[in-house]
Amino acid sequence: MENAGGGDDIRVQLTRSxxxxxxxxxxxxxxxxxxxxxxxxxxxxxxxxxxxILLVWLIAGVxxxxxxxxxxxxxxxxxxxxxMYVFLKEAWxxxxxxxxxxxxxxxxxxxxxxxxxxxxxxxxxxxxxxxxIASIVLLSAINYFGVKHGxxxxxxxxxxxxxxxxxxxxxxxxxxxxxxxxxxxxxxPLRTKDFILAIAAGLFAYGGWHMVTYAAxxxxxxxxxxxxxxxxxxxxxxxxxxALNAASMGAPMIEVAAKTLGPRWAAAxxxxxxxxxxxxxxxxxxxxxxxxxxxxxxxxxxxxAGAVHPRFRTPHRAIVLQAVWSSVLVVTGTYRSLFTRxxxxxxxxxxxxxxxxxxxxxxADYAPRVRVYAFVPLLFIAASIVIVVxxxxxxxxxxxxGLLIVIAGLPVYWFWSRHAH
Length: 421
What we know:
By secondary structure, this protein is mainly alpha-helical. The chain has helices spanning 20-31, 35-38, 42-46, 50-77, 84-91, 94-124, 128-144, 147-175, 192-205, 222-248, 253-260, 263-297, 316-332, 335-342, 345-360, 375-394, 396-407, 409-419, and strands spanning 3-5, 8-9. The chain has one domain (15-419): Amino acid/polyamine transporter I. It is built from 18 helices and two strands. The protein is globular and about 60 Å long.
């Protein structure tokens, strides 16, 4: 392979520094961000019954587990950097993988980085834009100097947020006061349509579970570690979400803490939101560049983006690329429109990923260490289709624009695949 220039060689290998604890922390830390604490739940607005609310969170958790099981089988068969990119490329075509990476860089993943960084800026105080960009740059720099440092930091923040959540739950349940009721129309009858829409909203709150697969080549025994981390991590998140919603019944957690425990606890929860968002951002910043690195290795991105730093053993140029573009999105504020228009298309790719299992199982060389029952990907495909159809029906114009943004990557792929070699 050709030299990437500047003394960096794309033949330099990544280093395996992520074990089961850090991989599990990555799953939990990325999923549990800020929204679970600060936003009135769409679930509570649509489901009037308290037991129904908890049932929605449980079902969403089970469906997320199904998606994680799909990823577990695929990652055990293809333990390579890139995760979803690799799965789509192997099951369908390089074009499918390219479109995923295209949407990730320009909108989906970079938009998430920008959005979460802005949340950190808002709750940390001071200049929101400056704090958001500083968070992106700081975490990117840490990951630049070694995945060991980046995953260690992310693990520390994940443990800290889980410990703080445990303390908060003990305080809320020990206080004996009833939390304020979130949502409207508590006496209204539950409709099947609203229940399904509530589950779809819950699935969005579980987003990011698949990102641990991006760093497979930096994970020790990834064919075993990643499936275990996915199972354990999703179970922890589901239990955490059910516990938090049992304590708040869908009301914003800061409001619950203020009314039930007093203003000091509300201030402490504000700090928890910062820690939680920053911890999620650490994992998201770590994950994304591994996809761009894998694309460059396959010749579907600038070759120099696939370089591995000879000393730090990280995809340092891909890390810089992500940091620069995410910071641009923060400054311009365009991440809002890009992200909201394109995020639903993620579920089209999820459905394709799950369907890919049936395609791959026909191949003689497909030998996963983990194999799931057929009903698991089938139910996950159905859930993904429901989310996509609901989004298109709710916002047809915005959905069409988002889909066009993704499809715009096709001519780029055709040009690149013909002229990049």
